Automatic annotation (TrEMBL):
Biological classification of the source: Bacteria, Bacillati, Actinomycetota, Actinomycetes, Micrococcales
Molecular function as annotated in GO: acyltransferase activity, transferring groups other than amino-acyl groups
Protein name, entry field: N-acetyltransferase
Domain N-acetyltransferase: 13-158
Cited Pfam families: Acetyltransf_3 (PF13302)
Organism: Arthrobacter pityocampae
Superkingdom of origin: Bacteria
UniProt keyword annotations, A-Z: Transferase
Length: 202
């Protein structure tokens, strides 16, 4: 997977750019939009923990297990990149298969249900299948996070199974993790579905 290195992915509504420490203030502002760190089903860092989270993701990038992005809103009219609205990543990278998981994603409350998350997933999936040559792309979420599960299923991903008592939440509770994936031969249908959904937001 020689093509897996920090890169910028541009759409008509979002820009995914390599995470950098200078994004700190913009990410704090995005997290404050909806006080996202207070929601039980998310793992969004509180403002005082944002710098630590940026450092954590960059350390994982250095080790080769994560490729983190900062998400910016793009003005559909001018094409100019605007404010930071969140973060996303390729994570649990397996370079030998090659295979990636799309996860550790969050978006400001005002950016939700605007088509930005759909386009982010489209850009990441297209890059994984068409540039990186992945035979599969994975998604994972908490069993009881029905909103996240429904969103993943709307992408066209199929459930692989449930990892019971798989990990602990930030509150120390055991979590059952639902695993989904999209396979390479499914990508054309998933791609067309995502393009249709993006066109509805145009």
């Amino acid at each position: 997977m020689t093509a897996l290195h920090p890169t910028t992915l541009r759409g008509t509504r979002v820009l995914l750019e390599p995470l950098a420490r200078e994004h700190h203030d913009g990410l704090v502002a995005a997290a404050r939009d909806g006080a996202l760190w207070t929601l039980w089903y998310t793992s969004v860092p509180a403002p005082e923990g944002m710098r630590r989270e940026i450092d954590r993701r960059l350390a994982l990038q250095e080790s080769g297990s994560m490729l983190p992005f900062t998400t910016r809103r793009v003005d559909p009219g001018t094409g100019e990149a605007g404010p930071i609205i969140g973060m996303t990543t390729y994570m649990n990278i397996d370079r030998d298969t090659p295979r990636v998981e799309i996860g550790s994603t969050w978006n400001a409350a005002s950016a939700q249900r605007t088509g930005t998350n759909t386009e982010s997933k489209y850009l990441l999936l297209r890059h994984a299948f068409e540039e990186l040559g992945c035979p599969a792309v994975e998604f994972r979420t908490h069993w009881i996070n029905h909103q996240s599960r429904a969103a993943i299923e709307r992408l066209g991903a199929k459930q692989d199974g449930v990892l019971r008592s798989h990990s602990r939440t930030r509150d120390g509770e055991l979590r059952d993790t639902v695993v989904y994936s999209v396979l390479a031969h499914e990508w054309p249908m998933v791609r067309d579905n995502l393009r249709y959904r993006m066109a509805r937001h145009a």
